[in-house]
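Work package 3, deliverable 3.1, input record:
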Amino acid sequence: MRFLHLIWGNLTRKKLRTALTLLTVLVAFVLFGFLSAIKQALVGGVELAGADRLIVRHKVSIIQLLPVAYQARMERIPGVAAAAHQTWFGGIYQDPRNFFMQCPVVPDQFMAMFPEFRLPSAQMQAWLATRTGAIVGRKTAERFHWKVGDRIPIMSPIWMRRTWEFDLVGIFDGRDKGTDTTGMFFRYDYFDEVRKTQNWGQGLVGWYTIRVKDPAQAADTARRVDEEFANSPAETKTEPEGAFVQAWANQVGNIALIVAGILGAVFFTILLVTGSTMSQAVRERIGELGVLKAIGFTNGQILGLVLAESCLLTVLGGGLGLGLAWLIIARGDPTGGLLPMFFLPGRDLLLGLGLSLALGLVTGILPARQATRLRVADALRRL
Amino acid sequence: MTGLLNWFSQIGSITKFGLMSIPQRRGAVSATVIGIAGVVLVLVGVLSIAAGFRRAMLASGSPDAAIVLRSGADTEMVSGFGRNETRLIADAPGVARNASGPLASAELFVIINLPKRSTHTDANVPLRGVEPAALVVRDNLRITEGRMFAWGRNEVVVGAGAAREFAGLEVGGTLKVGRESWPVVGVFTANGGVAESEIWTDARVLQAAYHRGDSFQAVYARLDSAAAFSQFKDALTSNPQLSVKVLRQSEHYAEQSEAITRLITTLGFLIAFLMAIGAVFGALNTMYSAVAVRTREIGTLRALGFGSGAVIAALMIESLLLALLGGAMGGVLAYLAFNNFHAATMNWQSFSQVTFAFAVTPQLLLQGVIWATMIGLIGGLLPAIRAARLPIAAALREY
């Protein structure tokens, strides 16, 4: 700490160079924050998946429907605590670009299965009392400026090819920061009643979510569910919710790898730029370092001085960059709706700070070693 | 005239001096060059994903081919027709014919779960039922391995992309559809188009397997000519027995690729823009230090009568040359690393996988070079001006 003013003096000696290096590091960490948020938006669902939940879908593909009668049979299987179903509605609100998910569900079963959706109990009561009632997540409600009491027309090209009207009775929030609050849910009994009048698709649902009694037995329970429906016209495939979400993310592509690739290129570049600046800075002051040694600075102290300088530079730049990234990300999804859950996780913020310190150590170590290896006489001769 | 020549020769000699001094500052110079190469690599790399995806989609439709969907349907997934409707569509004016009848194929489109080879997790693979005309309705369809499936038999052929990405789709393998197993008898290519992501079988076989009765989802038709499209479209949309949406295949696929191309391009530009800002700072650093170590030399030149304009121009040229070198390196690296890199992603419109190859196109490389040039110009300008403004006496005293 005693030498802080010395380190600071060295950094401010060439203000322009320091500022430019600082900005380079800053930009790298803005990118780091931004890419972390993108990765989180695309694959973050895996971490939030319930460990005690399984997804049951048609074995051939998710677009094929399952009988609603499977619910009672599932609930009788040992190890299954509860089951709830959802069906892809695929509706369009005004324009196909305004994409968000809608599903008919059985309200009490659904809310019990997904405790991460928080709905005020008065609104839950209203939902149970309104056949055409629907609830929507905070994100989508804010996106379209909906409020409770609004009548929402949704055109479904899949179901009846008509415009369905729903009464918005509730707006739910997410329990966790990453909970997806873009979905809209309405009542299955209303949905099935309309299907019955058209005699099309009644009694069929998209997929089931099961809560298991003991997460340790999840694999066994999944096997039992699939055995229950084996050799029927609609065979099932059951897997943990996490694996299901992971498979979806994998369908988009190997995002983690792409993000790591880009960040690798960025950091390699920054490493070179900062490293070359640092070694230039040290080279310019060989004479001074010789003087410091001559008046009794140890090699350890010299090493510390140079490393502290480079670390101060990168941590400052990294911290500012992460802060800036946080500000940009707080303004929301840059793609206009394609990445619903766009935020910078605290974990990645810490990782970023750690990386900035590591960057400082790596870029400083070569010049620092050079400085300690100096012989006093040689260094002084350069004065 | 001699003034101008003199000016050019001044620029030439200062630039030569500058370039000859590069070995002495090779650390900073190579950091800048590699920095710019990094920007171009990432820019071209990310955008080549979007370009490849678009290329796969656009290779799929020629201007004289049309697709007919139920009105209000944006994709085949939510479209549907009965046999009488598909017959009316095939007989419409404008549809090309050969000896066996109209060149129109009524098709079914469903999705089947298959594990990806790379991750072993399930993916939605498109499974299409076609009629015999499908082979002439699409361009450049060729069986490259095995044979075509036999009509009426439970057999499939798979696109080359699907065969590469998804497990079990090689000739001799079997496709499990519900409780049935269908042998894979051939692999086909479609000029890199979207059909290469699909599995094909006879429409009637698929109707039976999926209990679809005699229904279809889309009609693909080859027209007499590209100009016959409006005649075809008008005939169908004015027919009171039909409620359809008629599109050129090229339009249909462009629509399908729009969302994902927009996503990748937006993100790609944002990332490259941020990186470019970083690279500009790097270039500024290098050029400022280039000026700093040559202060005396520049002072001497100025004292000898070299103009300040020539100093600026020479330093800008040096910065530009370094940037172009970096840009070229980045472009070549991007080409080697990404061109024709095979991948598969989700096409949200059809809810299924599209296989495609990254495409490093000449336009993208040009774009990379333009970005590198901009970085070089911005990075060189301020230091050059500083060098030109140095008071000669002070510069000579420096050391």
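Chain B has a mean pLDDT of 88.
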